[in-house]
Write a structure and sequence with these properties.
The protein is of the alpha/beta class. Helices cover 36% and strands 17% of the residues. It has ten helices and ten strands. Strands 1-2-4-3-5-6-9-10 form an eight-stranded mixed β-sheet, with helices on both faces. A two-stranded antiparallel ribbon has the order 7-8.
Length: 305
């Protein structure tokens, strides 16, 4: 079921729901310059076997309002949009799953609105924390000295995006996915071609969004609140991650009180078919455990560090 939500004056967000209406809600929050269809259909359907799954288009993506130049916003506003989606759909509390920038937005939702979150799953992102990373040998590394984005990703991001038509744009996006997917799994070009064709058809044009990169990113740190977290949290470790390479996932799991870490073998900064099954299993195991712990009389507590 598709529905538009009014998130702010002049801003409408496209949403889609799958799964039983009375199942525990699960909100998917995608990354920068990516809309709801960045969550592949098979993954959404796997999660919808147990959840009322909601995916949505951020501002300036998909069928949501594109109006950054007329009405600029902050990254923090994108986090509040997630709450507006829940409000608009009449959902008091939901499991949330965020990837990349969506993982940062999920951290902001988790810390600013913990009463709205049943559990959080954080994928392909970095900690909104200045807490140092503790290596297995006990030594520490300042958060600002953790590995940066891979040079091949930065080089691609530095290239100007020129409009040579839809076919050329799809090929550009496939090349982008090839870099983001990492080097541990065979690259599935057909999957990403079909995905981008679907995204362009959904959006109605092949234009690219630069708004999220230009939005004010001030005020995003949540160091103390993450350290005080009481909501069940899962961090997905992707060993081939080129944007937030290891040990960013480990640092994130240390920064969020009670978080536990699950590795998806071969995963990079993408969701090809090879990782969708293991990822769905990890998310569903996490949300099921959180739901059990929330039952009246349950003696199961969220894992603590």
């Amino acid at each position: 079921m598709q529905q538009f939500i009014d998130a702010a004056p002049g801003i409408r967000l496209w949403t889609e729901q799958r799964g039983a209406p009375d199942a525990p809600p699960l909100l998917l929050i995608m990354g920068a310059q990516a809309g709801g269809l960045g969550w592949p259909d098979p993954l959404v359907d796997a999660l919808a076997a147990r959840h009322r799954v909601i995916r949505y288009d951020h501002r300036d993506t998909g069928r949501s309002t594109w109006a950054f130049d007329e009405r600029p916003y902050r990254i923090a506003d994108l986090a509040e949009d997630a709450i507006r989606v829940l409000d608009g759909l009449g959902i008091a509390r939901a499991h949330i799953v965020g990837m990349s920038l969506g993982g940062m937005l999920a951290q902001m939702v988790l810390t600013d609105h913990p009463d709205r979150v049943l559990s959080a799953t954080l994928i392909g992102t970095l900690a909104l924390s200045t807490a140092p990373y503790t290596r297995p040998d006990g030594s520490t590394v300042p958060a600002g000295e953790l590995p940066g984005i891979a040079p091949e990703v930065l080089e691609m991001w530095a290239r100007p995006v020129e409009d040579h038509g839809p076919a050329a744009e799809i090929e550009r996006r496939i090349a982008h996915w090839r870099v983001l997917a990492g080097d541990q799994l065979p690259f599935d070009a057909d999957h990403f071609r079909a995905l981008e064709e679907q995204v362009i058809a959904h959006t109605g044009h092949h234009g690219t969004n630069t708004a999220h990169g230009r939005a004010d990113d001030g005020g995003m740190l949540r160091t103390d609140r993450l350290a005080e977290n009481r909501v069940p949290a899962l961090v997905v470790h992707a060993p081939a991650e080129p944007v937030f390479p290891p040990p960013h996932a480990q640092h994130l799991a240390q920064s969020v009180r009670g978080a536990h870490l699950v590795e998806i073998p071969g995963m990079g900064h993408a969701l090809p078919p090879a990782v969708q099954g293991p990822l769905a299993e990890a998310i569903l195991a996490h949300t099921e455990a959180a739901d059990r712990a929330a039952l009246p009389g349950s003696t199961t507590a969220p894992p603590q560090p």
